[in-house]
Amino acid sequence: MKNESFISGMVTDIKCLGKITFLTVSHGAETFNIVATHDQAVGYNKLKNLKNNDYITINTNQQNGEIYTKEIVGVEKNNKGTIPESSNAKNYAILLNQIRSYFFDNNFFEVRLPSIHPGNNKGDIFEIDFFGKKARLSSSNALYSTVMAANMGKVYSIQRCYRAEPSKTSKHLSEFDMLEVSFLGQCFEDLICELSNFISDVFNRVNKLIPDQIKALPFEEIPVVSYADLNCKYGLLNKGLGKHEREIAKNGPTTVIHFPSKISTWSALPIDDNYTYSLNFLAPGVGEVAEGCLRDTRESFLRYKFAKLDLCDQLNWYVDLNPLPNIKILSFGLGIERLAMWLFGITNIRSLNCFYRDKNISETMKYGK
Amino acid sequence: MKNESFISGMVTDIKCLGKITFLTVSHGAETFNIVATHDQAVGYNKLKNLKNNDYITINTNQQNGEIYTKEIVGVEKNNKGTIPESSNAKNYAILLNQIRSYFFDNNFFEVRLPSIHPGNNKGDIFEIDFFGKKARLSSSNALYSTVMAANMGKVYSIQRCYRAEPSKTSKHLSEFDMLEVSFLGQCFEDLICELSNFISDVFNRVNKLIPDQIKALPFEEIPVVSYADLNCKYGLLNKGLGKHEREIAKNGPTTVIHFPSKISTWSALPIDDNYTYSLNFLAPGVGEVAEGCLRDTRESFLRYKFAKLDLCDQLNWYVDLNPLPNIKILSFGLGIERLAMWLFGITNIRSLNCFYRDKNISETMKYGK
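Output (structure tokens, whole complex):
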């Protein structure tokens, strides 16, 4: 704590014992425990009727690690209370910080990727008129992230992504935070391992900082199951995991690997005619949190595919900007709000942030009437 | 460095002295210095014709801090070279990391703000059809950041912002990284002080990590000059600083304060009928990098203003969500690419990132032909 004499912030706890009052005052992520006595604190009676979330400025005197009040300089009453999402937003800030620390400690570069993408030939996207050209808001930065990994080795980004789906479920937003991770590796198992390390490490880091906020149960290892095995068990018929997601992950976080080609992204490398080097990460109570794959970087295949789909103008840069077509590039994309839902036991994704977009714009729908 | 025996990465330096070769291999932000000898390295002749940016996998043996080659497992030739912007992108990643470290160390919460904003009544914005509602891409998150500060004390965000200006200058992009900072304070001087601390501290942090990449000259204090004084000197006629920006900041970074009401944001608190509590931060060779103000949070004024401009539906939430209308909220917004231009001596903003948007989409304009 800085040796300042003036402290300003919101009252987060107050105990008045007549001629002595104990205050907790927070300013941003910093918290001060302050003592005020009737004898020594000028303006002591300004503390009367002070409540949580009121704003206070105090001139203090700091001795032996204790903070004493010289004067109550000002008090501003809060008659509305704070935004109810603020406390989740603080946990979310800590999660973001620990995610970034993980990648910094593991030698990933943060890259910044464009959110205006060329072309708009897709159903669930927000269209943009980009100076007369067809464009759209990013629904995934996977291709950009892949190219950056091919050039820089190990990269991650945390940026907004968009899905123009007017969904009203408890785990979908039309604008959300996407973590994209890409790196050069040896084989598909490197991806399973990296994702598992990331999840375990972030769980431990956040649990160390704010253990009372963590609602996810501790876990040892993250089990890996193949789609083919789940197919036998649930009769998935080469479709998505859908309603089975929660059942599969009911005992703890689970990684499902080797999805059928029919439901995999075109950018995943095939294993054979039926399956691809792909994975989904499922969390208890939430379902899908991340998906990833070993990228198919075969130049001739990609050029053939783009030509067939008439996407050369829109996507040939993806081939041109990969300087190492025979190297394995591993990638995953993770919805950070969903990770937060699992870790902090949040049942509705809307309660993480006051300003959310589902099929509505929260602030104009809920406030300003 | 981890005690792994397999090392993969891009060759960033190679010196072959016949029967001994010294290699530098980078993987992400991690760098290895490796020795290979003709006697001990199986596949030594794979090193022949190896060049910078080629990709290599080596089985190594690590003794006394030295890394020796047991086997050259694989080599992948890079025939294209890496993206020319990669080296600037690495510096940019370090800058982002140090900016975030500054705010973490100073007890700011990172907040995530929406980039789809309600309404589209403005000239230089990208319009969006948001499920039938008029919306636009964020040109500033200042109002959201202000509300979050009123509720959480000290906040910052780093997100994409957008200006639909088909500009072709060397310092404008239509999609860029905006740092928004907002906090509760005592007076306008707190803002001058916070911005100055931030700039000085980030300069020192980055200079400590990558001194050879810093091209900005060292500075002691950041001088503060008033618009009124500059008006006398340059005859500004209540207009922007325009072409005088570089002259004003030619000797070092400079903060200009108290702009005329006519060219200030409506959200800045007036000092009197002529001037506002506002500031611009100018950097040598770049010009404007940041602007900020003491927010006008007077509830009755804001409601009157929004009613007059028929913006109640679009903006009344801004008043409703501020629980402390009589508290001073200080804010600034900073273009991170411009900060990077100054620090790293970059003359064209496009050379920071392979994927940029000016009036074109860089990757489809430059590649994939």
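The first strand of chain A starts at residue 6 and ends at 16.
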